[in-house]
Amino acid sequence: PAGGLALLLGVLLWRALHGAPLTELSGDQDFQLFLQRNLEFTRKIRGDVAALQRVVCDTFQLCKEDELLLVRQDLDMAQVPLEQCHRRTFQAETCFSQIRAGLRVYRGSLATIRALLPGHAGLVETLQLDMANLSSNIQQQMEDLGLATVTYPTENQDPLPTFSTDFHHQVGGFFILANFQRFLETAYRALRHLASL
């Protein structure tokens, strides 16, 4: 599915940069097929994150965000901006750069989840692989289109958040997954909007 997403993003970038109306593509069956496939791919990743959220809920009884907001203030949690993907004056280059930067941050912070849920390491690693592939596909498409890209080192150089207690580690894991789920919903909405044009 990642290859289809790369091609889709390439088409979208080209259209956005060259000012061609996306409505021209709405009748294109290949384009609609790419959108459908990649909506499914995004749903799969969201489902994997939701499965990890259920494990955190069942294992640590951490299920409701509003009950944990006070503890969150004590944690050093990275926020990943995606405002360029929300705006009506959508900037393709900046939006896709923000998505790649976000995927990199979340991919690194999933190591916190792997440490928290060692019995679910396989699912965490599958997620990390999906995210790495998506990020490199976006980079490849941007390079093909002559857009500015940032090349990240293959190993994640960002320090992992440190937690003073096991409870803070558990709550930190809860918020990493909750924030990542919101990040994915934004990407999903963007695809769905394009599919409805």
From TrEMBL:
InterPro entries: 4_helix_cytokine-like_core, GCSF/MGF, IL-6/GCSF/MGF, IL6/GCSF/MGF_CS. Keywords: Disulfide bond, Glycoprotein, Growth factor, Secreted, Signal. This is MGF factor. The gene is Mgf. One of its GO terms (cellular component) is extracellular region. Belongs to the IL-6 superfamily. It comes from Rhadina sibilatrix. Residues 1-19 form the signal peptide. It is found in: Secreted. One of its GO terms (molecular function) is granulocyte colony-stimulating factor receptor binding.
